[in-house]
Amino acid sequence: MASQPAPPAHDAPASWGIAPGNPRAEAISSSDQQLVSLDNFLVDPEHAIAQASLQKFAKITPQYPGVRAPLDPAVCRAWLGQLAPLLDGWFGPTGRPWAMQAWFSLVTTPRQALAPMQRLPHVDGTDPQQIAMMLYLHRTGHGGTAFFRHRSTGLAALTADNYPAYAGAVQAEYGRTGLPAAAYPTDGAPHFERIHVAEGHFNRAVFYRGNLLHSGVIDNDAPLSADPREGRLTINAFFRPAPG
Length: 244
Prior knowledge:
By secondary structure, the protein is α+β, with helices and mostly antiparallel strands. The chain contains 3 helices and 10 strands; from the N terminus they run ββαβαβββαββββ. The protein has a single domain, classed as Jelly Rolls. The strands form 2 sheets. A 7-stranded antiparallel β-sheet has the order 1-2-8-5-10-4-3. Strands 7-6-9 form a 3-stranded antiparallel β-sheet, with no helix packed on it. The longest helix has 19 residues, at about 75-90.
C-alpha cells in the first residue's frame, strides 16, 4: 500500500510502542470493502500480555462471549497519534479527528453456554464510519476473524437503512429452522456464507469497518482459558469520528 507509517508519538510509553509499517490490504469478497493487516504491530507484545495478566477482567456486554478489561487511555492516545493518519488513508478521512476506545479481551464462554445471539455472525454497529481493530496476542489453537454474507439478503455489511430487512429475514429463517446449534460460527451454514478470513497470527493487527458481519474464529473443541497468558487474548479497539 502507498500509505507511509507515521512517526512515533513522543509521549508513547516505550514498552507500548507500535510499528505500523508495511500495511497489507485485502479485498473482502466482491464488494468494495477491505481489511488492512499489520504484522509485528507491537514492539514488545510480551509486555502487553504481562500487563493483561494484571488486569481485573469482567463481563461488560451480553454480546461478547467472554471478559474484558479497559486498555490504559494513555496508551490509546499514544497509538491514535500514529494510527489516525493511516486510518484516513485506508478508509477515507471523515473530516473530524478520530476517537479511540480499546480493551483487553478474552473469549471464555464454552460452546454449550453460548446465548443464541453469540452463535451467529454479528456487527459492532451499523455506522460504516466506525473502524474496528483486532490485535491477536494469543498462541492458542483458536484463529482470527471470519467475515460473512447473509445468503437470503446478500448483505455482508449492515447499515441503519438495511438492518430492519436483515433482522426480519434472520428472525423468519430461524423461526423456520430453529435456533442455531450451541457453537461458535464456523462456515455460517445454513443462512450465512463465510466469505473471508483474517488469520490470527500472533502480534498481527487487523482493521475493518465494524458494520461488516463477522465472528471470531473459535475452535469449538479447544479449551478457552481465562488466563491471559494461556487464553485467546486480543486487544479490541474501535475508532470513531469524534463528535463535531
